[in-house]
Amino acid sequence: MLRSLCSRLEPQSLICAVTRGMSAYSPHYIEAIFSKKKQLNLKETDEYIKLSHLPIKAAKNDDSESIFYNELVNKMVNYITKGGNKKLARELLTKSFECMKRVQIERMNLNPESKDTIIADPEQLLIKAIENSRPLLQLTAIKRGGVKYQVPIPVTEKRSYFLAMKWLLEAAREKERKVHLPEKLAWEVLDAAYNQGRVVKRKNDLHRQCESNRAYAHYRWS
Amino acid sequence: MEVALRIGVNLLKINRVCVHSASRITDSYAKQIQLNRDFSTEVTVNAAPLAVKKHKVSKAMKAYLERARENDEFMKTQKLEYQIGKRHLANMMGEDAETFTQEDIDNAIAYLFPSGIFDKRARPLMKSPEEVFPARKAAEFDETGRPFHSMFYTGRPNFFKLLYDIVEEMNKIHDLEERMLRRGTRADANQKIDFTGFQWMPKEQLESMLVEQINDLEYTNFTNAMDRLVSLPFSYKCQNFIKKFSKPLLDQTKQLEIPKPQFDADGRQFVTTYECLRKTARGDVTVRMPGTGKITINGHDITYFEELQSREQVLFPLIFAGLLGKVDVEANVEGGGTSGQAGAIRWGIAMSLRSFVDQEMVESMRLAGLLQRDYRRRERKKFGQEGARRKYTWKKR
Amino acid sequence: MLGRHSFKLPRLTNMCVAYSTAAAEASVEQLYNRPKLTSTDYRTAENNTKQHSAVHEGKFYTLSPEQKKQLFSGGGLPRQYEQQIKTFTEACLMVRPTSLELLNYIRNTDFTRPVVRYVLYGENGVGKTLTMAHVLHYGLQNNFVLVHVPWVPNWMKRPKETVNATTQEGFIDLPFDAAAWLVHFKTQNANLLTQLQLKTSKDYVWTKREATPAGSTLLELVEHGIARIKFASETIAALLSELKQHANDDKCKIMVAIDGFNAFFHPETRILGDNKQRITPDRVTLTQPFLDITNYNWKNGVCVLTVDKIGMTEGYMDSYLPRYLLGKEGFEHLDPFVPLHVDNYSDKEFASCIQYYLDRNWIQKTPEGFDEQLKYLSNKNPYTLMRLTRSL
Asked: Is B377 on the interface with A (CB under 8 A)?
């Protein structure tokens, strides 16, 4: 755990010197920047001029400039994918979004005054749900003197996003078998977006545990 | 010689035992002299070690000189052979021997000795001996055994001298800065070294320049030190020094040339990109301008792809360049799967669009990763593992 | 809690910056900047189908809930469309050029001549069933007796129950489906039938004890069929022959609307006979009456049929053209007919559809150029557009 933490604190810039062992590209290739907004942002900094001399990898298949693209949603699709069947995963997530939208529109139709407050955009709902269920700390087992203590340690941003999405999916997969994943996932996301439901409870439980175990926090540095 | 040496050593040991009050002298030579002085009766005995020592010292030097001389002779003969061989070759090829360049030599050798070996370095070649044989260092210490270079005992004198040089330059610049500061003048920003288009000399090149082996860590140190040097405001004063160790990076955009659009029967401009590959899919794409945004793939509509992702990929370059409704696209693709075919068409469209778009947009597309051929292929399964990466389930017992 | 062990916030990686900016961007006004919608662009208040003309092309008109219930409670609208109606709380149909053309033809038919058969064909998801729905609505509003079969392949592929026919040897009955259809017929035509007071011309003897005498109203016949499921298929046969008779006698106008007509001529069904073998459609009792009524040996009527690729099983889906889908028999049976090609949306229709979705809050995000992207992604196909906008 600590080792992975140390590796995370490496300087991360666009020009990443560390790549996986067997990559089809040489190490000095950098990731593609396919979002027009990002490119515009870069132009204002000095990095842009450096980029004109660097070779760039090809853009991936899931990235595009289309209206349906969102990084978080893409990640979610990846986590739902099983056995390489991304088509099915995307279909499931789309159905889930549809479910969410229908529920929200129904709610909107029931109270016409709340049209401005109720969010019906499924992507927004998903983002909000993930934000609400992101943990700040997590517990690790650290062995000191033969005893394994549960020590609270901070969670990196990437990992917190991963945990939030994983919990959402786990909660969705837990319920009854007759109901399909899209509907279950839709309900989980809606609950989490409103700060209720099992995922947020799980996060709060974790935080409470960390709070109660804060006496062990110094074991991080022994 | 060796026998005498051994006898001498044994006698030395006996002598040591005898002489109790012999103070510890680390230098064996000095020890010898001491013993010589103490035990003059053993003159004959001492003569042998002295002689041994003299030979010992000069032997190394002698061997060194011997080697150096051999090397020089060897190189001379090689050069001579090379020259003669070049003239012979020119004769054989019917060319003028005086104006026979290295390129001509390479072509001639490739013609006379055709080789299908994959690695180009394993094929027959004929180059001047300086390039073929690695450079060696000349004698590093003189007769007395005293090294010429002050940092000889580091093992890598040239490299460390280089680092010292960098520090010297930095100190010089620091002093200059202080003087300028006292005068109140600042560094001229216009003359500041622009390092964006350059990179430091790669490790191999540096090694060959210094005729020494360098560690990865040491190379990183070197790079960091040079970066620090460059970042100083008055670094332009030692530009020559920096230029020696920098290498210009290629400007990526100007690598490939953009084809000119041709004109078809209707008077519309069009560009065809052949050999659009992605995984196993092969295709070719024609982009016509001006158009209505019609997309035809293998005779069908964009509905050829049922998946949303594939359709997005096909439209990606058009959306990026903003030419969605303005060009017509015709594509023929076969082989591979849905995703592979979509990727091939995407690359084809992007490459064709370059001719209809200005330089800035081409650079943007390159940064977006649209113009890069995706060479990733399926990784092979390895024995002892279930797949390419997945290992068999680990069982404790 | 964390004061003493203050940790450095981990440096933002590129992706995390993207996530937070993705969240931040989503709240940027630009994404939700809806174009101003003028409702007359995509809606029309003209709910009387009789008045629909080229002026209303590309606009949505509303179907009132009672009429919708009357017409489609037994089926007839695609499943996804039903869901859409529920979410949008209203049933809106778009006036399309094909339906206008068809309505024009129907308006100008000479009812003294033999019946004209119209066949709607087109790619998957292009709007054939909804065009038929539009025409049905017209029929309802103009006092046609509606003989509407929602989706024939349902009978061929997923029958609720199959029974060996009693009267005809070797034939298969579908009692539940027949009864369901009779209910559907009743809901559609109850008012009209009570108005017209059509009577049966001959006796129908079901068993020794049950018989429907001549002179009873068609409604009674229908109710008997619903009550006695065993004889439902025969009731249908009787009913349709009676109707044909009445139409020929100028007593009423009939509109026959059958969706997925090519299923009657498919080489095989999914119904298994006695000896566990697949049977062909002409061994089903229900096929015969409907084939009969689509003949042209009567007048005072209109026949609107759809041929659909979806109704076929795998292996027969090469083309969407009628000749291929109907096969030799079907083509000969229907020949001559008027083919009507239903096409994808035109630019104008597409724009109005997008505006309708925006109005109903179905499309939530509106980034720059989204309609163009949707246009090319969906290729202006109505079904694909509906599927694409699900997640938007």
From this structure: yes
